Amino acid sequence: MLHSVQGIVIRSMDYGEGNKIIRLFTPELGKVGVMARGAKKLKSKHGAVTQLFTYGDFVFFKQRGQMGSLNGAEIIEAHHALREDLHKSAYASYLAEMTDRMLGDEEGNNYIFEQLKAGLMAIEENKDMEIVTHFYEMKMFDLAGYLPITDACVACGETTGITAFGPNMGGTLCSRCRFKDPSAIVIGEGAQKLLRLFPKMDMRRLGTVQVKAETKTQLKRCMRAYMDVHIGVQWKSRGFIEQMEKYNI
Description:
By secondary structure, the chain is of the alpha+beta class. The protein folds into two domains: 2-78, CATH 2.40.50.140; 82-247, Recombination protein O, C-terminal domain (de novo design (two linked rop proteins)). 37% of the residues lie in helices and 23% in strands. The strands form two sheets. The protein has a five-stranded mixed β-barrel with strand order 1-2-3-5-4. A hairpin with a 6-residue loop joins strand 4 (55-61) and strand 5. The radius of gyration is 20 Å and the shape is elongated. The N and C termini lie far apart (47 Å). One of its GO terms (cellular component) is bacterial nucleoid. Involved in DNA repair and RecF pathway recombination.
């Protein structure tokens, strides 16, 4: 069957001497594996469109249960800046990896597609990469059915006096319940507000956000700990980000 769709390249790998296999994320078909024959060759018309993060129009033939074969493609947004900058590439790769590993094959999702598209553009436009990442992580938690409780104490339901985030308990905790999660992370008012905002806000509406360094540190600890407890995936791209942080690259 011939498909004509818009998609984002969330994975690209060499195959054989001259071919590439790409994984597209599309709003209608979800994740789709497509063979791009000859894409590695110097003069290939498919060389540019098969690069990671590329957003474009793709035409491919695919039979049920088989890999697709790329017939034609046209770039809508090349995202050169995401591949040319080490930090942007690392954070954009994390968004792509989450999409690849947390969505099932051929599981269409227009909303997540738009969030990924907006997230990649936000990183390219120099918006805060860490905040963009946390927004997208929260979308992934929601998709997986593990959205944390952030508008009240997860233990007692109290909406005031929130002082911590409990990864094991599954959300924010008030001062009286904080002891119930030994792994609880102390958070300030800024982190509380953003944790409440992340599940509700559309990435496409994200403007320029200025967040204090202390708040960003708290958010990072909360989101990474929650991801490790409830999703339990060893993220290659996040590991690279953590190495850059460790060595202050």
